[in-house]
């Protein structure tokens, strides 16, 4: 069965790396671990040995049947939803998987692991962020440049919308990087594993989640512009912007890329207080 590049199938064959990924999850002997994209099962096998239960979500039905057969001791059922020992393989698109229902059924917050299919990395990270309440922690492999952005600190070259979006849902830390030769077939990029603990900060920073994330899309809309210019471009009144920047202690010439989430939250609260931003504004779409 040749790998399908359109499904991001670059299989990890570096066994020490597999062990490091699973070790980075921490103790999970009594936990349900959801694996995104088990593929040929490299990580799944290690998880099966360490986790209480593994729920592996694979879009490719051929791979799902193969894995189901392996984990059910030779017999997979027709819908590739075989149950064997502590591993279940579900043939499903991770983007339509119901994490909240799975967490409720398990009676605990889920742990997530995966060497992600890179063609949908951002949608998967956003899906996990949306479901942060159902999740405890994750260890994920992504393209190195994505990990750079996810874990970036304010003022660094890579800090932007993705950093803020991820970090508002909990701390993210880089763990290690692998060269293309760790995979079959080798991808064109290096890959980095990072850990993301889910601990949303919206309540602590007194911001409404949906409104604040929409505001962040406005704030980071145009990379080289100042924060004030981006806010003006989003239709916010210039005098209100100047007052809010001053209120939040932000240099009027600052760019969003230099500001920590705590400061961006203070700015949102200040604009909100004066009514300069309302709950029904439509933000421009940023990719
Ligand atoms: N975990 C395996 C490994 O490390 O060798 C495979 C990782 S491979 C980079 C990504 C896997 O995700 C592939 O098996 C692919 O078929 C699967 N996949 C692609 N799109 C998916 C989706 N939308 N939902 C679930 N799995 C998907």
Task: Describe this structure as you would to a colleague.
This protein is α/β, with parallel strands linked by helices and 287 residues long. The protein folds into two domains: 11-197, Vaccinia Virus protein VP39 (Rossmann fold); 209-273, rRNA adenine dimethylase, C-terminal domain (Helicase, Ruva Protein, domain 3, Orthogonal Bundle). 36% of the residues lie in helices and 18% in strands. It contains eleven helices and ten strands. Helix 10 (238-247) crosses helix 11 (261-273). It starts with 10 loop residues before the first strand and ends in a 14-residue tail after the last helix. 41% of the residues are buried. S-adenosylmethionine (SAM) binds at residues 7-12, 36-40, 42-43, 57-60, 63, 93-95, 115, 117, 120.
CATH superfamily of the largest domain: Vaccinia Virus protein VP39
Which stretches of 5+ consecutive residues score pLDDT under 50? 78-83, 282-287
Give the class-level CATH name of the largest domain: Alpha Beta
Task: Please state roughly what percent of the residues sit in beta strands, choosing from under 5%, 5-15%, 15-25%, 25-35%, 35-45% or over 45%.
Answer: 15-25%
Tell me roughly what share of residues is in helical segments.
Answer: 25-40%
Number of strands: 10
Largest sheet: 8 strands, mixed
Q: Remind me, CATH topology of the largest domain? A: Rossmann fold
Q: How many H/I helical runs?
A: 11
Name the overall outline. Answer: elongated
